[in-house]
């Protein structure tokens, strides 16, 4: 049956694993490949149906990249295979607006709140791959990756320092937030 039964209780799946939290390691910066976004139209719904995400990461690895940034039909980056995508231009961090095209992650949301406390402006807007290639910095956010710098996109080096100053400031603010919750 494709329709849920009335008053059916949802299934909850959870797992735990250790997460190493420490200083930002430039050696863990990611090489990104831009890949067409082949997912369905409601990416804001968290599901366990991750076949398209796995296929895009596999395609990135076949291009000698660590991960993929998904690109919609109009040429704009949506997100990564398992995290939110960010670029930095002129000291302002940019990420795609929340909506059906992305899963607005909890780390993304927290970084947006913390940015105001450290004086970094956040601009929610769509950005193209060509804008990514001209960015001063790029990074991803997710619950398991925290903030991870991006060193290249489609083979083009991003910025001239890893991590970039905005990425480092936001990471340090996020790290302080996590440690304050222990």
Structure description:
There is one protein chain. The chain contains 4 helices and 9 strands. With 182 residues, the chain is of the alpha/beta class. It has a single domain (29-180), classed as D-amino Acid Aminotransferase, Chain A, domain 2. Helix 2 packs across helix 4. The N and C termini lie far apart (44 Å).
Keywords for this entry:
9 strands, 182 residues, globular
Give a short overview:
It is built from four helices and nine strands; from the N terminus they run βαββββαβαβββα. By secondary structure, it is an alpha/beta fold.
Question: SSE layout and pairings?
Answer:
Layout: E1 30-36, H1 51-62, E2 67-71, E3 77-80, E4 84-89, E5 92-95, H2 106-117, E6 122-124, H3 129-133, E7 137-142, E8 146-153, E9 156-157, H4 165-180
Helix pairs in contact: 2-4
């Amino acid at each position: 049956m494709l329709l849920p039964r009335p008053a059916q209780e949802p299934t909850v799946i959870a797992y735990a694993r250790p997460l190493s939290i420490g200083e930002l390691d430039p050696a863990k910066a990611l090489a990104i490949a831009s890949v067409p976004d082949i997912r369905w139209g409601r990416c804001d719904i968290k599901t366990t149906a991750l076949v398209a995400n796995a296929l895009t990461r596999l395609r990135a690895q076949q291009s000698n990249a660590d991960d993929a940034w998904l690109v919609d039909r109009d040429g704009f980056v949506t997100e990564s295979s398992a995290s939110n995508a960010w670029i930095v231009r002129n000291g302002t961090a940019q990420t795609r607006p929340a909506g059906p095209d992305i899963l607005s992650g909890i780390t993304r949301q927290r970084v947006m709140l913390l940015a105001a406390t450290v004086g970094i402006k956040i601009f929610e807007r769509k950005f193209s791959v060509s804008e990514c290639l001209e960015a001063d910095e790029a990074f991803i956010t997710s619950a398991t990756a925290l903030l991870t710098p991006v060193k290249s996109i489609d083979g083009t080096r991003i910025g001239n320092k890893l991590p970039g100053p905005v990425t480092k400031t936001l990471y340090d603010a996020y790290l302080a937030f996590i440690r304050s919750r222990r």
